[in-house]
Amino acid sequence: MTIDVIALTQEMVRTPSLSGDEGNMAALVERRMRELGFTDVRRDDNGSVLGIVGPEDTDLALLLDGHMDVVPVVGEWTTEPFGGEIRDGRLYGRGSTDMKGGIAAALCGVAEAARTGRLTRRVAVSASVMEEVVEGFALASVLDLCSPAAVVICEPSKLQIKSGQKGRMEILLTFEGTPAHAASPECGVNPLHAAAQALIVLQNLELPTHASLGDALLVPTDIVSTPYPSISMIPTATTIRFDRRTLPGETSQDVLSAIEARLRAAGLDRFTLAVTGDKVRTFTGCCARPFRWLPAWQIADDHALVSSAAQAVQAAGRTPSLGTWRFCTNGSESAGRRGIPTIGLGPGNEEDAHTIDESIALDQLEGARDIYRELVLGMAG
Questions:
Q1: What is the per-residue pLDDT across 2-36, written as a single tens digit (0 to 9) for each?
Q2: pTM value?
Q3: Rg of the chain over CA atoms, in angstroms?
Q4: By the 8 A CB rule, do 9 and 360 touch?
Q5: Digit-coded pLDDT (tens) for 96-145
Q6: What ranges in the chain are assigned the alpha helix state H?
Q7: Which residues neighbour 234 within 8 Å (Cβ) at sequence distance 6 or greater?
Q8: Which residues contact 319 (CB under 8 A, 6 or more apart)?
Q9: CA 152 to CA 50: how far, in whole Å?
């Protein structure tokens, strides 16, 4: 008997869970896990929920991960953002695609597989926190509690198998200035001039490319002076924040060295480069400053995990296809840092994430549930 993944997704969408405020969603997930037959259900210190099924004293064949947090509601919606309205074959609401539908499908699919009585290995589902703030941070503590042989990231993929993703690095480039009165600018050194030159110089920085993941990117996302606002005064410093999309094989030192070399070749000095480590606080009160170097990763197209996923898609009555993600996910921790075989596979369109009137097709939810069931039976049955 199939489990109603649509109703569960609807219930999750109706439970708001902004980053750092996922407590009610965590309680819902924990309760539904127990009702669905997960025998080992727990929360870690960050508040992420982990549920496991299968015979005790066997290895963990597979972990399916999804994040509980959602981005804020912005803009003018035509539906209630947390209403879970169903219309024309789609379920509307913040987090429907990104990514409560993926969590619901994972819970239902794994539970259906367990109810067959055919599991010979354990399987886990994690509902993690704070992914929208920093990818991989919360999954790290989940992986410290279990050791899966493989991981599925249930982010939206249109049910396509994702074999890799770009990584992400947040960089702060700070130019030092010499303060002076704005009426006597010749008495100081204005760091804004150096920052402006740096933006032009780095716009043409040659970046690597990858056959399937495409080009690396360096995108300025913020610029601020110290003090801010600097009223009638040459600022003491100016900082540019960059988002650097990385490729497999790149290291943080590779990235920083290339930027520094280009700046110095242009005659710029009195600057520092750093990777951000902004403070995060979970709903449980845990605080950390995660290093925002989130590695890229890719798994071989002929890897056994990819083959198992393709077979599961076929067994669920669909046609498998392979691709990669442009964005960053918790896979940066499982695959990028820890080298655990990882794929992405989830319901919904990537393009619908973070949008006004976010929604997901009901057919995608049911398809993901069925694929996850077949994948679990194929790898742990």
A1: 889 999 999 999 999 999 999 999 999 999 999 99
A2: 0.94
A3: 23
A4: yes
A5: 999 999 999 999 999 999 999 999 999 999 999 999 999 999 999 999 99
A6: 5-13, 23-35, 101-115, 137-143, 191-203, 252-265, 304-315, 331, 362-380
A7: 177, 178, 179, 180, 181, 182, 185, 188, 189, 190
A8: 313
A9: 14
